[in-house]
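Amino Acid Chain and Its Fold in Token Form
===========================================
Structure side: the spatial fold of the chain, written down as a series of whole-number tokens.
Position: the record begins directly beneath this header, with no further notes in between.
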Amino acid sequence: MTHPNAAAPAGDWLFQHDGMLYGPVPGQLLFDKIESGTIGPDTPVARDGEPFRRIGDEPAFAVQVARAAARIRVETQAREQARRRKRRRIAWLASMAVAALLLAGGAVRLVLWAEGAGLFAPDEEALAALQIQVSLPTFRVEPVGAAAQEELLDYLEPEGEAAGGKSGARAAAGKRRTGRQGATATAAAPERDGLVVEASYDQAAIQTVLAREQRTLYPCLQEQARNEPSFRGEVPLSFTIDNAGRVGRIWIDRAGVENGPLFKCFQKKMAAWRFPAFRGERPSISLSFRVGS
């Protein structure tokens, strides 16, 4: 979460990450990526047309970078302390089991008691500090169906047009383009029945919503790790956005969780996400969560 006294710099920015160039994106999106740890003080940034420099040396971001670095250090120390406490607890439990085995042959009863007392349950502090990283999203156009094409025809047909009907609208639509004026991410799709359908969603706005909402999925991942202690690694997620700005279908491309509790938790959380409404082709968004270091 951005510090309440911090104001995101105005205008659009470019940034480099893992050898790739991204942007233009609003300054608020860079603030969110700094806060989540996705980018660090050495990430190159620039305003459009200006030279790149380290984001830590950019006055507009220097304070936010320093605060995020301090918070990450504190969280890292907290995770290490939690791991040390858990190791000590395991060592103590092991020593108790050996002592019980040597003294009275009661190791089985001790283990059963420990399990019932929850000593083998996941460390809640460790779960709270579980490191979760999110990849940058990728976009592709999701083809619309016949019903959506008819909706676009109605949208493109001028009011009061009588001659030619919808076939006339299709012929004229080949010379028109849909979409809002302004900085929107547009991608022309193949022509269908003489109608050039265009994706007119705002990619920067979608990225801003993702940066704000993706943390709402962290409790789902933590609950999955609580129920499955070995749950670590990549969790690829894909979903569509409908023209009303709501999440449509979602997919989790990981064996064992495609339709289980994690999927249902994602589905419930993402039902509350809201993106800007748009006309045209539906975008499909893909990103990946990495659970654990």
The mean pLDDT is 76. The radius of gyration is 26 Å. The first helix runs from residue 27 to 36.
